[in-house]
């Protein structure tokens, strides 16, 4: 029987029988893939890739945000009240100053609300999720009827200023609702 086929119970036994056996990569805890390591514990399988420095650190997980907190309610109410005219970061910080003056806490809350789908970030603007879905429905209906749309037509349809129109159209392009063809937008085929 060849040495590869023999079942050595532990790495120590393997090393006793073949002390000069090459290890093609560092950091391997066992010479036998999925073998039993020393002290009878199962060792992890060897990787064909060399270990990366710092790879033993676990990935950092974001902390959960309390969506029922007063700050979350205030942020959601303010953005919902703004409707189609989405506030920016500075306007939001000013509006929630009575609840929290810490910009990092407000930013963390905005991230949590965005992950929950309550609000949607469009560039530096913060839209209410329901309001944005309403704009998207109008856009899809218009494009299904007419085939293509220009920026002034979208502005006339929504009644918003260019401050909101351009980021919204870029958002719809990025989320693959529309396709930009020159100066016009067309409905993307699915």
Assign the CATH superfamily of the largest domain: Winged helix-like DNA-binding domain superfamily/Winged helix DNA-binding domain
Q: How many helices in DSSP terms?
A: 7
Shape: flat
For the largest beta sheet, what order do the strands appear in spatially? 3-5-4
Structure report:
- The chain has helices at 11-17, 70-82, 89-95, 103-116, 129-146, 151-158, 162-174, and strands at residues 119-122, 125-128, 148-150, 178-181, 184-187.
- It has 190 residues and is mainly alpha-helical.
- The chain has three domains: 9-41, no CATH class; 70-128, Arc Repressor Mutant, subunit A, CATH 1.10.10; 131-187, Orthogonal Bundle (Arc Repressor Mutant, subunit A), CATH 1.10.10.
- The longest helix is centred in the last third of the chain and has 18 residues, at 129-146.
- The chain is flat and about 80 Å long.
- Mean pLDDT is 78; it is low at 30-39.
């Amino acid at each position: 029987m060849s040495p590869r086929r023999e079942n050595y119970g532990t790495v120590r036994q393997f090393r006793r029988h073949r002390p000069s056996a090459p290890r093609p990569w560092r950091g391997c805890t066992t010479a036998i893939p999925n073998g039993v390591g020393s002290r009878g514990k199962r060792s992890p399988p060897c990787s064909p890739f060399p270990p990366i420095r710092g790879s033993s650190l676990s990935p950092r997980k974001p902390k959960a945000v309390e969506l029922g907190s007063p700050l979350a309610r205030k942020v959601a109410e303010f953005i919902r009240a703004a409707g189609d005219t989405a506030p920016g970061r500075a306007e939001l910080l000013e509006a929630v100053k009575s609840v929290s003056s810490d910009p990092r806490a407000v930013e963390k809350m905005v991230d949590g609300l965005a992950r929950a789908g309550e609000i949607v970030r469009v560039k530096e603007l913060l839209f209410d999720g329901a309001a944005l879905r309403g704009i998207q429905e109008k856009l899809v209906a218009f494009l299904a009827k007419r085939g293509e749309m220009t920026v002034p037509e979208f502005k006339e349809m929504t009644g918003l200023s260019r401050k909101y129109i351009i980021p919204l159209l870029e958002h719809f392009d990025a989320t693959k609702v529309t396709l930009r063809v020159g100066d016009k937008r067309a409905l993307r085929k699915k």
